């Protein structure tokens, strides 16, 4: 079984936001392909913190970022298709710099949506960009991948149940693993 990986707002407060300007405006962090040119590291981002904002394990936008702790757990669980880049978050209010995060490029896109059993809106006639209200994953199309981007909606990060169980047993309890049928994206 597969799940859609999310990191929803914390119970107490809100997810900290950040601004980031890529050094290459043509680089895509969500297409699942390796970059032609490596980004300049460490990447620099500016936090937009409110009094009740919190840093979290995972952001999907404006740039995919995860904690070093999450990256280590994913590697230990067998995920081997992440290209990672050091990132520094600057809190302009305090001047504090957080450097225990990594921007990531998840390599691998798989067309695993069972469109006959999914609820979606197509943005073009070729079904290349879909907006899902509910997703069904065709297990036979996943190639037993542990973690990948969904080809039909590359904002969707799909993880195998073994990854979910490993992360939860490792004490990482701030992520949300949505059954595909409950995912919108």
What does this structure look like?
The protein is mainly beta and 185 residues long. The protein has one domain (2-182). It is built from 2 helices and 15 strands. The strands form 4 sheets. It has a 6-stranded mixed sheet. β6 and β7 (65-67) form a beta hairpin. It is globular and about 50 Å long. The model has no long low-confidence stretch (mean pLDDT 93).
Give the topology:
Layout: E1 2-6, E2 14-15, E3 17-20, E4 43-48, E5 53-54, E6 58-59, E7 65-67, H1 68-76, E8 82-90, E9 97-106, E10 109-110, E11 119-122, E12 130-134, E13 147-150, E14 153-160, H2 161-169, E15 176-178
Parallel strand pairs: 2-5, 4-8, 10-13
Antiparallel strand pairs: 1-14, 1-15, 3-4, 6-7, 7-9, 8-9, 11-12, 13-14
Residues in helix, %: under 10%
First-last Cα distance: 19 Å
Beta fraction: 35-45%
Task: Give the beta-strand count.
Answer: 15
Number of domains: 1
What's the main sheet like? 6 strands, mixed
Q: Give the radius of gyration.
A: 17 Å
Coarse structural class: mainly beta
Mean pLDDT: 93
Features:
185 residues, mainly beta, 6-stranded mixed sheet, 5-stranded mixed sheet, 2 helices, 15 strands, 10% helix
Brief write-up:
The chain has helices spanning 68-76, 161-169, and strands at 2-6, 14-15, 17-20, 43-48, 53-54, 58-59, 65-67, 82-90, 97-106, 109-110, 119-122, 130-134, 147-150, 153-160, 176-178. 10% of the residues lie in helices and 37% in strands. The radius of gyration is 17 Å and the shape is globular.
